[in-house]
Amino acid sequence: MDSPNTTGQMQANNNLNSIVFIGNYLPRRCGIATFTTHLHKAIENNAANIDSWVVAMNDRPEGYAYPPQVRQEIHQDRLSDYNLAADLLNINHVDIVCLQHEYGIFGGERGSFIIELLSDLKMPVVTTLHTLLTDPTDRERHIILQLAALSDRLVVMSKRSIKILRDVYSVEAEKIVLIPHGVPDVVLGNPTAYKKKFGLCGRKVLLTFGLLSPGKGIETVIDALPEILREVPDVTYMVVGATHPHLKATQGEDYRINLHRRANKLGVEENIVFHDHFVDNEDLIDFVGAADIIVTPYLNRAQIISGPLSYAIGMGKAVVSTPFWHAEELLDNGRGRLFPFRDHNRLSAEVTDLLTHPQTLQDMGQKACDYGGQMGWQQVGNRYLDIFKKAGQRRLRKCIPAHKLSPLNLRQQALPEIKLDHLRRMTDGVGMLQHSKFNVPDRSHGYCVDDNARALIVAVCVQALKPHDRALDELISVYLSFLDHAFNADIGLFRNFMSYDRRWLEEEGSEDSHGRSIWALGTLIANGLNEGQVNHARGLFLAASDIVEGFTSPRSIAFSIIGLHAFLSRYPENHAIREKCMIFSDKFMHWFADNSDEDWPWLENTLTYDNARIPQALLMSARLFNDNEMEQAALAALTWLNNIQRDDSGRYFSAIGNHGWFKRGTVKAKFDQQPIEAAAMVSACIEAFYTTRDENWIVSAYRCLNWFQCDNELHVSLYDHATGGCRDGLQVCSVNENQGAESTLCWLMALLAIYQFRGQGENKHS
To answer: 191-373 has which CATH code?
Structure first.
């Protein structure tokens, strides 16, 4: 199958010295890995003079036993790996980067971390889009928009994809290139020779292949088999492929076992062969060669690309398929037949008709073979090489970094890893303990709702960045269970303090603890990945939200508003919650009107703790309700907070101290400065940036984050890199060495806010 380069090919490639592919790579077991591997080998075969290599994505810490072509690895959930990879590509003056994009293979919320890498690249980028959604979430749409902005060409594999890019994402036509999914460059012989390898001589063979998951619709074929066998008794159905690794990690082999049970119940178990392993290219050719009909009974109509379907057409096989988008396109003009989703009766009729009319079956395979001649990897590789050359000659990307463009080069700042060691150390089967002695949990003070609510927020936000970390699911359950147990349904309020021996020390907690609980539940509802957890949190949220209307604490109302906005991000049509959000925000506006003036633009006479959450909440509401007056009040308050919380030189964040706070008409207390205010300021400043697009707010956000890391008046680090904990406060001459729950959680919340900002980019839509 290898072919020598022609003189024309060599000349066409003279301007390219190096090409790097970013994506999954074999032996990782998934469709993207197979595609990237074959595309890379096609480039190697067609252009041996070009140095082509791979940056491979890992979904597990130990990685994989990659071949030498993989020179760099990225752990998908480790943001610093993306920064290092960008530096490596830039330093090596790579000519072209070819990215294989699929939401699920990159870290961050919906794979947002890859944007961080692309934003730093100076060379042309060609991105292959393996998934396009017609009804994306705001985050999913935003990621494609960023990919389009950061890429010089976008390669798609179907005509439907071009239409989606134009209609849904408004991508300019000159950036879009159609190149079909590649297939092995082979001509299949008589099926009998292949059937002999599997002991299926004289049998009619149906085949479905690829990683096994419920969306493949295998049960539809099993349900059709009894009727098919009545007409054609010598049929064998081969199901080839391992269970998808991520499905197996969460559900084991339940789906495969249920398929076996279904076959047994229908009495067709002797006519089905399950090959439960990941097949390499050579073995796959044998399986496809043995098949009389390839069946792709997938259940998702919006599937724009199917590797198995491409292989079937490219290798000249008759196909019967559900009418998902890629199938409608590839099977047009008699190259295959379609049947309705989940309609086993229609499937059995189509299969039976083809098996009992051999000439029709043969003609269909020939039409597929004729069409598939353009899909061989050699031709596909040459088309990619042509696109790489054009991208190198004519850049279409508008945002090309000559250097970091943000103020103070802050986006270049390396972020600490999200380290949950101390959080886990402070958490037992009940919940998160409040206090520690140094970095050792202190059991004498027990637990509180405030900290378990914060811990729930942190765990959910980390899970959004690391969706495959199953341990986070356990932490979320612990913290959610604590809040559930804390809720006193008789009075509609959360208790707060619990002793270490599991006794509640009160029947109702503070307004703050209640507001933080609503915030935490809303965060879980908005971002949770476990349906049971989300449903439980929703019921608890709705039961607890009514009583907030009677609260008088501004901070508790701010926490509640943030939680309401999170809830609305998942249920935007819930008018009752939307109305509450407006009522609570209007309450703030009345308080500001009654209390603030030019010198004191605040809604109360004393600044205490967590102050910035108030303008943060108000800014969120101003954007939701398009309320300019609300926006101006929030920005005035936050600007004031930002100005007064500086050291004497103006360089460092200097939180209002809790030894006296800051009372109107007096001087603010300088110490003890605590992490709670720095964390609030980070989030509020980012929210202000999204509202105003003023880069100075990002400078302020980083200033507050760096307060944890020596950029403070004492030049000492509150964050402990060794333990993952955070010290409790900045004192007059030293730090409080105890690493309690509140300080550690506030550090993590601040760090996560920056991670989320860098992951979702600057262009967040309201």
So the answer is: 3.40.50.2000
